[in-house]
From TrEMBL:
<keyword id="KW-0732">Signal</keyword>
<protein>
    <submittedName>
        <fullName>Interleukin-7</fullName>
    </submittedName>
</protein>
<feature type="region of interest" description="Disordered">
    <location>
        <begin position="112"/>
        <end position="143"/>
    </location>
</feature>
<feature type="signal peptide">
    <location>
        <begin position="1"/>
        <end position="19"/>
    </location>
</feature>
<feature type="compositionally biased region" description="Basic residues">
    <location>
        <begin position="119"/>
        <end position="143"/>
    </location>
</feature>
Amino acid sequence: MPLLCISLLALLLLPLSLSCGNKRSQEDVRNDYMAIVKTRLDNTRESVTSAVQNLTCPRERKHKLPNCTSNVDVVTSLHNLTCIMMYLRLDHTDRLASSVLNSIRCPCLERPTKQPSVRSKRRRATTTRQRRNEHKKSRRQKKLCRAKAILSKMTVCYQILNTMNS
């Protein structure tokens, strides 16, 4: 019985320990945006837009991303969007993600990594390699489209943050 109580208590307290308690105020995040993040956001948006230029991305509503509205904690929404962007692991977005996380002062939780599976070494190398390369290309395109949608949402969040009163 005591073990059950301890387990339940741990499950109740776990989300509190994983949340970021030392997030900065909206005014501080707004000041960092004007000083640092704005140029990184513009550069990243330009870079991703040029990379996605010849692709057809699905509509943004397909990407289930957090929305920023004036009645929601904008800093939390920015944090969630930045963590999603960071998990994409694209060269285009890494610097922006680290700048936003430094501005908010709240790191993303680590995602568990997949363990490599042991496979048979004997295969048809050419067809497997071609399929793998096609899969990598389509996965990269999806990531770029998702990054474009995230950048659009982040821009809206920062616009809302800049129009809010302190």
